[in-house]
Recover the amino acids of this structure.
């Protein structure tokens, strides 16, 4: 089994258009959630979100590219470029032939579906642009990354709702660890902040109208975000041989399925994913210093997640730190685990634990150190990142400082 | 704008060329328009002239709509406009 390290990171989300600005915002506890700016917003009952602002696709991509890139693909390409540039890798020859792209997304080109349904249903048009299908397909982003960066190995898209990115990164990790690929580009993206995307979420009645306050007794739901997070996972010896800057090591992962309910989370499923990741990584539970929580800010998730952490970690649960950065960037659904992995990297590399902002009242059912409202300096060696999806599909990654 | 000028404008935009570089004798192949670009051009023509072009990308030569040159496209549009008006 090979060791796997991260040698490049890229992102775009409501907190920033790149990794340095995003980490600076997390460190400062900035809230990227605000009033949604989108067509027909007045017909929505939920009017807030973690929208990416000031991202002009025009100028960044040419006309032909624009006709093929949904917003989720635009985000992905921007994040992938940042990650690959940072890694210093150029994909050619054998490296290109074996390296691929595994990305997560829950909805793919949601705004392309939305715009074109509007056109044929509302506007009564009988003709749509010929690229609607290649633009909206869930693998469009992974395909364009492979084309842009000459990645010719195994590439595909994983879709497991809110755990999509973590499942994708677990796959990419497995491929590098097994020796199948020397490097993989992985992460995820989402862009559902359009009328139809938000309207669909409204239906579930789990969305907050004012703020995302994970673990706080007065929490009242989740807030959607958008954006992408992309990483270069590289075999350790390959990275060391070329003198690459190593951000951290991915030590292990686990996936589990609740096999119980299509929306309600399960303590058992979450516990098995966390304990499985520690076992896979060969990490003792008392080594874990930080958990990046799934922490959606819904009544059900946060208490279930805290109970699962208490089960897995026993007395050590009171010593570790756990925070939810969704309070700042919103819930990026299929891209969320990827953006949240940045908080784990910051914890391991910079010794800064991102806070859970919006925390107002302790909840006895979430009685853990949730790093309320302000970032904290702490030296930790191991972090884990949780993602628990609708459909009961869970994926947890374990990371180690290098 | 005449049918010819509109077609030249559409083809030139697709080929990322100045309209002055597109002539009636130009073939789409000469102009570097690939199969995806061809399908997008047909869409733009349908939108610009409010017509429906019988075109199947599986077998472009099988349809009545002759796409071999700019001139044949213009002729095809004029025929379809007469038929579909």
């Amino acid at each position: 089994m090979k060791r796997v390290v991260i040698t490049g990171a890229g992102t775009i989300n409501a907190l920033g258009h790149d990794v340095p600005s995003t980490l600076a915002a997390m460190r400062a506890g900035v809230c990227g959630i605000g009033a949604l700016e989108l067509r027909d917003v007045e017909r929505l009952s939920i009017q807030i979100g973690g929208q990416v602002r000031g991202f002009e696709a025009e100028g960044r991509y040419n006309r032909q590219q624009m006709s093929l890139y949904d917003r989720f693909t635009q985000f992905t390409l921007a994040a992938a470029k940042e990650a690959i540039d940072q890694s210093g890798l150029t994909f050619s020859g054998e490296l290109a032939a074996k390296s691929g792209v595994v990305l997560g997304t829950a909805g793919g080109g949601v705004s392309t579906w939305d715009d074109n349904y509007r056109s044929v249903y509302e506007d009564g048009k009988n003709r749509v642009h010929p690229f609607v299908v290649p633009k909206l397909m869930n693998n469009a982003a992974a395909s364009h990354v492979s084309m842009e960066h000459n990645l010719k190995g195994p590439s595909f898209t994983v879709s497991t709702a809110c755990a999509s990115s973590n499942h994708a990164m677990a796959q990419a990790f497995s491929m590098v660890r097994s020796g199948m690929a020397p490097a993989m580009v992985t992460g995820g993206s989402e862009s559902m902040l359009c009328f139809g995307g938000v309207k669909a979420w409204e239906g579930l009645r789990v969305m907050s109208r004012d703020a995302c306050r994970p673990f706080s007794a007065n929490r009242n739901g989740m807030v959607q975000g958008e954006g992408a997070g992309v990483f270069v996972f590289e075999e350790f010896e390959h990275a060391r041989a070329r003198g690459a800057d190593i951000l951290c090591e991915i030590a292990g992962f686990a996936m589990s399925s609740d096999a119980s309910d299509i929306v309600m989370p399960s303590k058992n499923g979450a516990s098995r994913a966390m304990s499985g990741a520690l076992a896979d990584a060969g990490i003792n539970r008392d080594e874990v210093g930080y958990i990046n929580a799934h922490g959606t800010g819904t009544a059900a998730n946060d208490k279930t997640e805290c109970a699962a952490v208490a089960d897995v970690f026993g007395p050590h649960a009171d010593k570790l730190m756990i925070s939810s950065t969704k309070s700042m960037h919103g819930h990026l659904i299929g891209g969320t685990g990827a953006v949240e992995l940045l908080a784990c990297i910051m914890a391991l590399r910079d010794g800064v634990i991102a806070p859970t902002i919006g925390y107002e009242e302790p909840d006895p059912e979430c009685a853990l150190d949730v790093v309320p409202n302000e970032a904290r300096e702490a030296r930790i060696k191991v972090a884990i990142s949780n993602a628990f999806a609708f459909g009961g599909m869970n994926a947890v990654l374990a990371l180690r400082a290098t | 704008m005449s049918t010819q000028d509109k077609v030249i404008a559409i083809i030139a935009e697709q080929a990322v060329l100045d309209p002055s570089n597109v002539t009636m004798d130009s073939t789409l192949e000469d102009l570097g328009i690939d199969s995806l670009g061809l399908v997008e051009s047909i869409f733009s023509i349908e939108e610009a002239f409010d017509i429906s072009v019988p075109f199947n990308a599986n077998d472009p030569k099988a349809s009545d709509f002759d796409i071999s040159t700019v001139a044949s496209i213009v002729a095809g549009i004029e025929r379809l406009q007469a038929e579909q008006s």
Observations:
- The CA atoms of residues 183 and 234 of chain A lie 4 Å apart.
- DSSP finds 14 helices and 14 strands in chain A.
- Chain A touches chain B through seven residues (CB under 8 Å).
- The first helix of chain A runs from residue 19 to 28.
